[in-house]
Design goal:
Elements (H helix, E strand, L loop, with lengths): L2 E8 L22 H29 L6 E5 L1 H10 L1 H11 L4 E3 L14 H19 L5 E3 L7 H9 L4 E5 L2 H4 L7 E4 L6 E5 L1 H8 L14 H9 L8 E6 L13 H14 L3 E2 L2 H7 L5 E2 L15 H4 L2 H11 L2 H4 L5 H10 L3 H4 L19 H22 L6 H71 L1
Parallel strand pairs: 1-2, 1-8, 1-9, 2-3, 4-5, 5-7, 6-10
Antiparallel strand pairs: 6-7
Helix pairs in contact: 1-2, 1-3, 1-9, 2-3, 8-9, 12-16, 14-16
Amino acid sequence: MNAICLYFQIHQPFRLKRYRFFDIGNDHYYYDDFANDEIITRMAEKSYLPANKMLLDMINESGKKFKVAFSISGTAIEQFQQYVPEFIDSLKVLVNTGCVEFLSEPYSHSLASLSSPEEFHRQVKMHDNLIYELFGQKPKVFKNTEYIYNDEIAALIAEMGFSATITEGAKHILGWKSPNYVYASAGAPNMKLLFRNAKLSEDIAKNFSNTTWFEYPLTADKYMSWIAQSPREEQITNIALSYETIGGFHPAETGIFDFIKALPRFAEEKGIEFWMPSEAAAKLNAVDTISVTHPISDADEARDTSAWLGNDLQWEAFNKLYSVAERIQMCSDKRLLQDWTYLQSSDHLFYMSTKHFGDGSSLFSPYESPYMAFTNYMNVLSDFIVRVEGQFPLSIENEELNALLTTIKNQESEIVQLNKELKALKESIKDASVVDEAPAEEAKAKKTTTRKSAAKKTTTRKTTKKTEE
């Protein structure tokens, strides 16, 4: 069996403006609106919009045999809604073909799964509600931020009811095993694992326009022949790419659009089908169980989490951020919750990585150095924590604060209940008054009628007597 699951990731964080120490306590707006607008608009023009048009053509020209999956962060969707709403409209057109599936993920592309299960659940639910609201789909398959995964995270994902999750086919995890099979998770035996084929994914993502690559140029025919040559018993090939690969990382003049568009034709020639991930999870049985004790990801050669948590700067920021997680969960302030969500984007920690400083990866950072990224983020975080403390003083322990808030909520419930009872009592008294007044009104009316009758009789007698005289 030869089948392909093709995944595209879209994520854009809310980038922070230059935030000085003296802004702490004075300026509570943290975002660089100009940069956010400029970047997402530019990428939409070069990549997202023409790629959507191309995928629609591919679906129609293949007779809907071509299928694809998207994983889009909530922060990216918000920016599309604000700056490039036509992209959302074009996605809806793709969804209406029935050949596009959305994956679930944390709303802000966060690392919550490594620190706060409650926050992780909140963000996943928040993301999936937005996907359903916009596109009418309830995601069935999960993909964590940067494919981060281990057995503990698997249990959290399974609790939320997902049938499968996709993660990185890391060599140190799979060993001699192929990523082109479906496996069961040791952390959640009923949940299936789909592993990203790192080599075939990076042949496109990293090497497509690399003229020094020994396989250059990469053609659709050559690429599909590699997949067709895999053993027939292998079940599924998972190709996962950033959507910016098409037209962004590899500009249109490299031929990337022509390459992607030709894939379905050569796939059909070689008997290869395109499936959506939920189809793969439903059709294929797990061939083995895989245990992952330490978190893996798709980053670097190490395939671990060191791109975000690899130095003291990153750990300091990460720990300080999640130190207020319990308090924020008690919060109902929408602005505070919004900032909390945006500040969790993994990008902020990635910019602090000293592993990438000086190589190509540092080009993704808006800062001159990891240390400037750390300083700017910590200034913002300091102001944010001051605001949190304003509502939930840090001098009060979390358990004590939670107990106080519970008492307040209980009192509010009691007040609501007492108000209901008071209202019901007033209505009861009012009804009783109406009942008591009814006989009195009746008697009064009867008395008035009797008087009128008596007066009428007197008048009649007088008239009769006068007539007789």
